[in-house]
Design goal:
The protein is mainly beta. The chain is built from seven helices and 19 strands.
């Protein structure tokens, strides 16, 4: 039978604050043979952090990108961007590197204690009275278009995490202010609205945080089929209610850097772009660390549907880039969010650039993964242009890339 996604949203929101379901204004048509199953829930505004201090991993340094590493070639220690995205963003072929006070350009080492992190430890209620609203559902009998027989994993939320966030816009008294003020703020493609604020920013320091309709349909049982460059800013959805972005940041001259090399983040290694709060690099610092000496938990899912785990492998040892493939992943048996054990490919968050997803091992339906078409009833053949997660890009409703 056919149900509209808004009905699924209402069912999912029974256990959390449900205003996000009506705020989205998104209605989609789904064919369901069985009820959606709730498997994970990110909490309301009362949670300030999901960090497990009893099993914290002490990280003091990160390995940043080497000066001149490719932006477009998929390789270990790099993150490759699709020519469409890199072309529109006018991204150069290689990354640059800044000699910031926390970056040793001779060793590519970032010393975390030297970073002037953005101040503030704000609960999500500071940015939305609802706090953090997030649900993850599995729909085994409904497929994402272009992925027959794989089922659907659905995320619904307001984009605000259950972990603490810094104070944004960055205040002029903040030690990090000068770094943000020196970088361009850009233009917000979502325009002037309650969810996204002003359409243009005088500089990066002026960008604040707002809730937005986070809606993402990913394959539930993805299949490895290649090594595909990334074609969006967002690369994955966290189980704490926010997203991960690509590890790229530009300056006013058009140079691109590893974001943490050029720009301090907050204590959970996040900051906003176009009002959308997102994570970079050492993001797992504020996540549940799991049990010391054992494999790290699943922290979220990449846009191709594969899980993203923390840095520890099956033997409890921290995985390095040498242990991972060119997309920054590996295969092992992991514990899924619903508690089941599954042998699968998964990406790994670790201390070495690109820190998360380097490229995609499965194809991606960017149209469905980044907030299906808005307004509702848009033809499946039409380009998807929902600006909240797509940042102004238009995507076809199909598996990408089309070829092998």
């Amino acid at each position: 039978m056919k149900l509209k996604a808004i009905e699924i949203f209402k069912e999912a929101c029974k256990t959390v604050r449900s205003e996000v379901c009506t705020k989205t204004g998104l209605i989609f048509s789904l064919c369901l043979g069985s009820a959606a199953i709730l498997v994970s829930c990110g909490g309301g505004g009362s949670d300030s952090s999901s960090t497990s201090t009893s099993a914290s991993t002490e990280i003091t340094t990160l390995v940043t990108s080497a000066n001149g590493v490719s932006n477009v070639t998929c390789a270990r220690n790099a993150q490759c961007i699709d020519f469409i995205f890199s072309g529109v963003a006018q991204m150069p072929a290689t990354l640059s590197q800044l000699a910031t006070s926390w970056t040793d350009t001779s060793t590519n080492i970032i010393t975390l204690s030297k970073i002037p992190l953005v101040q503030g430890s704000n609960n999500a209620t500071v940015y939305d009275p609802q706090g953090s609203v997030f649900q993850m559902l599995t729909i085994p009998t409904q497929d994402v278009y272009g992925f027959p027989g794989q089922g659907t994993r659905l995320f619904v939320g307001n984009g605000l995490p259950s972990t603490p966030m810094g104070t944004y816009p960055v205040q002029s008294s903040d030690p990090a202010y000068s770094y943000y003020a020196a970088l361009p703020g850009g233009t917000n493609p979502a325009g002037t609205s309650v969810a996204t604020g002003n359409p243009a920013y005088v500089n990066a320091a002026a960008i604040g945080i707002s809730p937005y309709p986070l809606v993402s349909f990913l394959p539930l049982n993805p299949v490895k089929s290649g090594f595909y460059p990334i074609n969006s800013l967002i690369v994955g959805i966290t189980l704490t209610g926010a997203v991960w972005h690509v590890e790229k940041a530009n300056d006013a001259s058009g140079n691109y850097y590893n974001p943490l090399n050029a720009l301090p983040t907050d204590q959970c290694y996040g900051h906003p772009y176009n009002q959308q709060y997102h994570h970079h690099s050492y993001s797992w610092k504020c996540f549940d660390q799991g049990t010391s000496g054992q494999q790290s938990p699943v922290y979220g899912f990449a846009l191709d549907g594969f899980p993203i785990t923390g840095p520890r492998g099956p033997d409890g040892r921290e995985l390095t880039n040498a242990d991972l493939d060119i997309c920054h992943g590996t295969e092992s048996e992991i514990t899924m969010p619903d508690g089941t054990r599954k042998f699968t490919y998964h990406y790994v968050l670790n201390r070495e650039y690109p820190h998360s997803v380097g490229c995609f091992r499965g194809k991606v339906n960017y149209n469905q993964a980044l907030g299906p078409d808005n307004p509702p009833n848009t033809s499946p053949e039409a380009l998807g242009t929902n600006p909240f997660m797509k940042e102004g890009f238009a995507y076809f409703n199909r598996a990408s890339p089309v070829g092998p």
